[in-house]
Design a protein that fits this description.
The complex is a heterodimer of chains A (about 300) and B (about 240).
Chain A: H1 3-49, E1 60-61, E2 67-71, E3 81-82, E4 89-91, E5 97-100, E6 107-108, E7 113-122, E8 128-140, E9 143-144, E10 152-158, E11 163-165, E12 172-173, E13 182-186, E14 190-200, H2 207-218, E15 228-240, E16 250-251, E17 261-262, H3 264-295
Helix pairs in contact in A: 1-3
Chain B: H1 2-28, E1 32-43, E2 49-53, E3 61-62, E4 66-67, E5 79-89, E6 96-106, E7 121-127, E8 130-135, H2 144-161, E9 167-168, E10 175-179, E11 187-195, H3 212-220, E12 227-237
Antiparallel strand pairs in B: 2-5, 3-4, 5-11, 6-10, 6-12, 7-8, 7-11, 9-10
Classes of the chains: A alpha+beta (about 300), B alpha+beta (about 240).
């Protein structure tokens, strides 16, 4: 065999080996992809089991989710949005000021009451689950305190009359508020309103404590000595509902809502992909077997 | 060659499958969002301090001219003293009711006849060194002693608050004034008393009743007239 022939043989041998390696890689990728599709299918089937009997959909095509939280002043909650739950001035029924902050800070005093309204809005075309909770922190000179008593009472309830804190006839003291996360759902184009009420009874039954707290505040210099203050935080988290057609809240407007297309098209696509991959897998296996048989 | 084409075709199909899977995974991606609202507030300031000092309003001796024969404190023509020194401070961030309750008890002996109340003591209310008001009897007569108490009470609260709008409560035993939130309540007053020696004494108001024969009369009574004075000041938040 001449050198050129030997080189040609070597070249062809190299190409064959390259091709074999390439096919083996594609075979591995194909197997992995089939496993992925099978996993997705298993998950989908399991999800399908928890849906109502008359529904077997688990994919949503044409999703248009939109969830936001806003208050009565038109503020939208984002990340740590500062809102006006408390005030710097409080007035009586005749409109006369009974409490006025000298520094512009928001204040609390015996006889002060405030009512803060906010709402969860689902403006999308699919249901969402949401979770909300409240955190209070009582601060003395800027440091959180668990022992200081503040005769502040709160109530939190939905427009539909469900009380998360307190009740229709009872207010809960701020020191005693314990609220597990409130979880609910909103249907497409629906909303749920909430009202948070905070008050400090004029006749709290402990004038000495009221006076002590007021004197502490008067002695504060606004820097190191800040007296007693309250920090309040309302947290809300929302995610798409497992059943996009779930109902909940007050529907805004039935007309003009986008229809959600559920399931069928994507399910078919899944099957097509699976068949193509199985076909390719069989092809690669057949090709490799053919090569091996030819060798023998 | 033909086998290479098949391999290439299969590879292209596989790539298309991978792209399509990305689209499917997009339909499985879960939508999540959230929001947090925060707010804070401090306790409104109070910081009101009221001090009333008046332990030595009357004495058992005034120099050597008037000396009590026992341990009782006494008053007599030519004697004087300070009933109370009042200091109020603070600028509360809440609306308040400023109330003054004066108890000026003049026994029935402060009288020169039936229905003829007589009390020659002149009460002076000062803010700092400035005279704000003088309260005294202008003539003898019925119920004059109780009228003195009410006048003195009004004069004190007006001196404390700088207003002439004090109103009596339902029983008339207390006068009060409402002050808006954020008003400075700082004031410093004294309430003095003086029994002028005679009608010619310096500082005696021209229309004040002061007669030697009346002084002699009540000084000679078997049961000496007595005077009691107390002053209460209340500053209370109102809504």
């Amino acid at each position: 065999m001449s050198i050129n022939e030997k080189r040609e043989n070597d070249g062809q041998q190299y190409k064959r080996e390259q091709r074999n390696a390439y096919v083996r890689i594609m075979l591995m990728v194909n197997i992995v992809f089939i496993l992925l599709l099978i996993t997705l299918g298993v998950i989908a089937l399991r999800v399908n089991n928890v849906l109502p009997e008359d529904q077997d959909i688990f994919f949503v095509v044409g999703k248009n989710p939109s969830f936001e939280i806003g208050d009565g002043e038109g503020k939208q909650w984002k990340n740590e949005t500062n809102v006006n739950i408390f005030r710097s001035t409080y007035k009586d029924g005749k409109g006369e000021a009974i409490v006025i902050s000298q520094t512009g800070d928001k204040v609390l005093a015996p006889g002060s009451t405030s009512s803060y309204k906010f709402a969860m809005y689902n403006n999308g075309n699919m249901a969402v689950m949401y979770e909300t909770d409240i955190d209070f922190a009582l601060l003395v000179n800027g440091k959180e305190s668990t022992t200081t008593q503040l005769p502040l009472k709160v109530r939190l309830y939905t427009d539909s009359g469900k009380y998360l804190v307190g009740s229709e006839n009872e207010w809960t003291n701020i020191n005693d508020v314990e609220i597990d996360s409130y979880i609910s759902q909103l249907g497409a184009s629906s909303y749920e309103g909430f009202t948070l009420e905070v008050k400090w009874d004029y006749e709290s039954g402990n004038d000495e404590l009221d006076t002590l707290l007021g004197n502490q505040s008067a002695a504060s210099d606004g820097k190191n000595n800040k007296g007693v203050s309250v920090d309040l935080k309302i947290n809300t988290y929302a995610e798409e509902h497992i059943d996009p057609t779930a109902k909940g809240g007050t529907v805004v407007n039935e007309e003009g809502r986008d229809e959600v297309e559920h399931g069928g098209t994507v399910r078919i696509l899944w099957f097509i992909l699976l068949f193509i991959n199985i076909g390719m897998l069989l092809f690669y296996i057949a090709w490799l077997l053919n090569k091996r048989l030819n060798k023998w | 060659m033909l086998k290479n084409k098949y391999i290439k075709l299969a590879s292209i199909l596989l790539i298309l499958c991978l792209i399509t899977s990305c689209v499917i995974s997009g339909t499985l991606a879960k939508y999540t969002t959230g929001g947090t609202a925060t707010d804070s507030a401090r306790v409104a300031k109070w910081g009101v301090n009221v001090s009333v000092v008046g332990d030595n309003a009357f004495k058992t001796a005034y120099g050597t001219t008037v000396v009590s024969s026992d341990t009782d404190s006494v008053v007599a023509p030519g004697t004087k003293g300070t009933l109370a020194t009042v200091t109020v401070s603070g600028q509360p961030e809440v609306k308040v009711n400023y109330a003054v309750n004066v108890d000026l008890e003049l026994t029935d002996s402060w009288s020169v006849g039936a229905g003829m109340d007589y009390c020659p003591i002149v009460f002076t209310v000062k803010s700092g060194s400035s005279v704000v008001a003088t309260v005294y009897m202008k003539s003898v007569g019925e119920n004059k002693n109780s009228a003195l108490e009410l006048e003195l009470e009004k004069a004190i609260i007006n001196a404390l608050t700088g207003e002439n709008t004090a109103t009596a409560d339902g029983t008339g035993s207390q006068h009060s004034v409402e002050k808006n939130a954020g008003t400075s309540l700082s004031s410093d007053i004294t309430v003095e008393w003086e029994w002028h020696y005679d009608g010619e004494s310096v500082g005696l108001p021209a229309d004040a009743v002061n007669k030697d024969e009346y002084d002699t009369y009540i000084g000679s009574l078997p049961t000496a007239p007595t005077i009691f004075f107390s002053l209460e000041i209340f500053v209370t938040q109102i809504v």
